[in-house]
């Protein structure tokens, strides 16, 4: 049987993208935060989880299509790596070091929540790791855990954080998170020449290929970020991908996340959802406490530090930072470090506990 996330059914793909776009536009009309991403995620996720088959077609989005669009975010982030921003990285070491305390604390709290909720030890441990979905599920499988349950727990951690964080910012700031397109970099207003388009395409493709060959974490993001940042810092290119392309990317990413609920056991999903929601809230409360403490030390706004510690996906948290025009390099760097440290700590814990 073919994997539904790799095979291509043009009609099913078109229906999924149309449903996601409709959800994104509806969310935009309702003035929801990062509307295109959340709207497409919710509509396709609900449809996939409920087993709805429009015109007899499944909700699906091939993983390779998502991979084709994610570098757009990485290339856009690279445009924020100006010399002035890079000069401030040396002042961020206290918050980067704080990840060594935040991550095991969040992991321990999540583990306790899942164990108290009646989940097995292995699944609770790897399901509670605050980063590195693919890597931690693989480690959990090696330890004999239920891959389906760990995947659902990790995926819900990512999804719920993506939903909660922009809503929190909307409540705290009194305004909508995210522009109509979801990108607010000043460089987005600069027209791109054909040569610059070619350079940005090369940054995305070669960046991903190089990062994957070097086994860098989250290669689909980190490679394009590094290549784009180098090109911008060297003055070879000045603009970034246009706003409309980032908007399309939000819809594709949202549909890709939502489609992964297809075929998930509903009883397992319902049980895991409640526990994952409690874990997500607990992790965000811990992140908020760290943000209040670290903000004056690193001279960054507390919301930026909070966003840097929120355990969502690298691409999605970066999209929120793009929309907020909020310390983009600071946020991205911390999330890359979070993924590396989370997976490393999970490997160490695996050796000690199992």
Describe the protein's architecture and organization.
There is one protein chain. The protein has 354 residues and is mainly alpha-helical. The protein has one domain (64-242, 264-353). Helices cover 72% and strands 0% of the residues. The protein is built from 15 helices and no strands. The chain has helices at residues 10-29, 35-50, 63-78, 83-87, 93-116, 121-127, 133-142, 147-173, 194-213, 219-233, 243-259, 266-298, 302-309, 314-324, 328-353. The longest helix has 33 residues, at 266-298. It is globular. The two termini are 33 Å apart.
Count of the domains: 1
Order of helices and strands: HHHHHHHHHHHHHHH
End-to-end Cα distance = 33 Å
Number of strands: 0
Low-pLDDT runs: 1-6, 178-184
Largest sheet: none
Question: What's the number of helices?
Answer: 15
Strand content: under 5%
Mean pLDDT: 85
Q: Roughly what percent helix? A: over 70%
* Classification by helices and strands: mainly alpha
**What overall form do the CA principal axes indicate?**
globular
- Radius of gyration equals 19 Å
Keywords summarizing the entry:
single chain, globular, 15 helices, transmembrane, 354 residues, mainly alpha, disordered N terminus, membrane
